[in-house]
Design goal:
The chain is mainly beta. It is built from one helix and eleven strands; from the N terminus they run ββββββαβββββ. The protein has a domain of 94 residues: Deoxyuridine 5'-Triphosphate Nucleotidohydrolase, Chain A, CATH 2.70.40.10. A four-stranded antiparallel β-sheet has the order 2-11-6-8, with no helix packed on it. The protein has a three-stranded antiparallel β-sheet with strand order 4-9-7. Strands 1-5 form a two-stranded antiparallel sheet.
Length: 147
């Protein structure tokens, strides 16, 4: 398997993101905090990671929630998946939201999200007056039923 090369600058004192197992799709990213950060229920915050990326124009990096953090603490990535475009060179920040009924504290070095790299398909939009018909038509939002 051929791997894309992605350049990384780490201004974090933590290890750089890495796949934890051979079958992992995402790399865990860690919070970089001077002091612990406590989120009240329904509070959202941008958490710095100290990570900067440069990738091929055919890729995007998606910031996704960690399932264990969501289940155990009620923390998730608010704009999931967050998209890091190939031409962005700033620090990766993770927008976390506390969906639990309790305060949740994030500490320095805690794994807060995962980074998943995906191929991007570019398209040319062609403006037309109407679209061809299909079996589904305009049915959406549950139009195919629940069972």
């Amino acid at each position: 398997m051929s791997l894309h090369k992605v350049k990384i600058v780490s201004k974090s004192h933590h290890e750089v993101p890495a796949y934890q197992t051979a079958g992992s799709s995402g790399m865990d990213v860690r919070a970089v905090l001077e002091t612990p950060l406590t989120l009240a229920p329904m509070q959202r915050v941008l958490v710095p990671t100290g990570i900067f990326l440069e990738m091929d124009q055919s890729l995007e990096c998606q910031v996704r929630p960690r399932s264990g953090l969501a289940l155990k603490k009620g923390l998730t990535v608010l704009n999931t998946p967050g998209t890091i475009d190939a031409d962005y060179r700033g620090e990766i920040g993770v927008i976390l939201v506390n969906l639990s009924a309790d305060e949740v504290t994030i500490t320095d070095g805690e794994r807060i999200a995962q980074l998943v790299f995906c191929k991007v398909e570019k398209v040319n939009l062609i403006q037309v007056q109407e679209l061809s018909s299909s079996e589904r038509g305009e049915g959406g939002f549950g139009s195919t039923g629940t069972k």
